[in-house]
Automatic annotation (TrEMBL):
Methyltransferase among keywords: yes
Keywords associated with the record: Methyltransferase, Transferase
Name of the featured protein: SAM-dependent methyltransferase
Organism, scientific name: Streptomyces cadmiisoli
BP GO terms, sorted: methylation
Listed GO MF terms: methyltransferase activity
Gene3D superfamilies, per database record: Vaccinia Virus protein VP39 (3.40.50.150)
């Protein structure tokens, strides 16, 4: 497949032109992405993901959630239209060169709109959006664009999983995210950090024409080997891009380190308990 990147509307202005996007994607893949594994596994257990599941992952990033589903026997398709660097890492994970570890023939990755993922008449039995919303103004609109293209590709009544940050008082990382909100230029509008709201996921589902059918909360602590790893991991989320654009990288790094200090343990590791929420909605 020759990649043809079709960038979706993004809720933030994007990283500074001086950011090494490949290094940031690697930090996401190696440091940050694993923090959400408890969320992925809880959803897969609840929906009994396994052989016979045809999963469409929206905003699949570097593919860890897809890899977990594939290990349960699911057929997986990932869509990552906003980060070619993350998608390249997903290809490394799901299409390894080792002859003893080949990807399933029904595994697909696309960097276009979800419609490019359709293969014949088979429709998806599950759609997931595991990149949590609720911390950036405008992020729900970006997810809505992807859902509008994805929902018609799913079977009638198929579950669509939306995920978001839990209440700020249940997320220790909220204290660090306030640094981004303080430093970001208020004129940025979309892309400026804001507290998660209780009905964020329900509102997205309603606008997409989906019927809510259950929800849950999952503990996803953020644990890092040291302060440097914590800063790199959190920067890789993109949640601090508006702050960097409004000030500079050095100031953001400094204030992040100060905000992380209360979460450092005597051995130098960083530990922040968090709760994430998921909503299961059904296609019409």
């Amino acid at each position: 497949m020759t990649p043809t990147l079709v960038r979706q509307h993004q809720p933030h202005a994007g990283p500074s032109p001086h950011v090494d996007l490949a290094a940031r994607a690697r930090d996401w893949s190696e440091i940050q992405e694993r923090m959400l594994v408890p969320l992925h596994e809880a959803v897969y257990r609840r929906l009994d993901v396994g052989p016979g599941t045809r999963l469409l992952g929206l905003g699949c990033g570097s593919g860890l959630a897809l890899l977990i589903a594939a290990s349960r026997g699911a057929s997986v398709t990932g869509v990552e239209p906003s980060s070619p660097e993350r998608l390249a890492l997903a290809r490394e994970r799901l299409f390894p060169e080792s002859p003893v570890s080949r990807a399933r023939a029904d595994t697909r990755l696309v960097d276009q709109a979800p419609g490019a993922a359709v293969d014949g008449a088979a429709r998806f039995t599950l759609v997931t959006a595991f990149e949590p919303i609720g911390c950036l103004a405008g992020d729900a609109e970006g997810l809505g664009d992807l859902l509008a293209a994805a929902v018609p590709l799913a079977e009638r009544g198929a579950p669509v999983v939306l995920t978001g940050w839990g209440p700020p008082e249940r997320c220790a990382t909220s204290s660090v995210l306030r640094v981004a909100a303080k430093l970001a230029d208020p004129l940025h509008g979309a892309g400026r950090p804001r507290p998660a709201l209780r009905d964020d996921l329900e509102e997205v589902a309603q606008r997409a024409g989906l019927r809510p059918d259950g929800s849950g909360r999952v503990a996803c602590p953020f644990g890092y080997a040291d302060l440097d790893s914590a800063v790199r991991g959190l920067l890789s989320t993109g949640l601090f891009d508006a702050a960097i654009a409004a000030t500079d990288q050095e100031q953001v790094d400094k204030e992040m380190a100060e905000a992380l200090h209360p979460h450092r343990r005597p051995d130098g590791t960083v530990w922040m308990p968090n709760v994430f929420r998921y909503l299961i909605a059904r296609t019409p």
